[in-house]
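Help!! Second protein's tokens look totally different from the first
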Amino acid sequence: MGEITNRDNKKMLILFAEVVAALATILIAVLAMKIPVVPVCVIVLIEVAIAACLQEVPVWVHAVVAAVQLVAGAICGRVVFCLLCILIYVFAILTLREARA
């Protein structure tokens, strides 16, 4: 009772890594790219939510999602920010799969 197992530690480290990646993306977008903080935070949360909803689908669906994000970034003129969001999406998918295993 009250013991922390290696599995619990692994899940906490995965969660911590995801939070650090999200904060890094937010800081880069806000400080370096001068994008307002509220839209950046909302988009990062949407990325993680999409990853959570689509974690069981085949890999080609993830490729389609990434391609759509990249096209949207090209249309809006924010390709670098969309690349960061794609990295958050991929990282979220990988961490969710690892945490579930």
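Here's the second one for comparison:
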Amino acid sequence: MQLLRKYHSLLDAQQDAMNLRSRGVATHISGKESYRVAPIFSGVFYVSLWVVLDHQYNDALALLDDPDHPVRDPLPADDMDVLEADFNGEASRYAFSFIVVGAIVMLGLFLLVIE
């Protein structure tokens, strides 16, 4: 995975991601959730657009500058759906693990305080 660009507008990042996806380039936008909360509270003032497959990096950069650029190895929509489902499932597992560990730590602290 390689960084393509940073955006101060989530909408602009999403639009570029959709355009790249429509041409067969798999992307990911990081920082969306923190950015949505409110930058003043989260400290996140931009989102980042990443190309998922390293071999598509040069095509992705070229497409951002020239929408008519021919993609050398476009990913079929079905493969992209599988890739996104795998990524979202993995992210959900990490989030769940983080919540469980946080709950255990909070319970431990609570038990220490009430003793």
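Reply: Different proteins will give different token patterns, so don't panic. The chain is about 60% helix and 15% strand.
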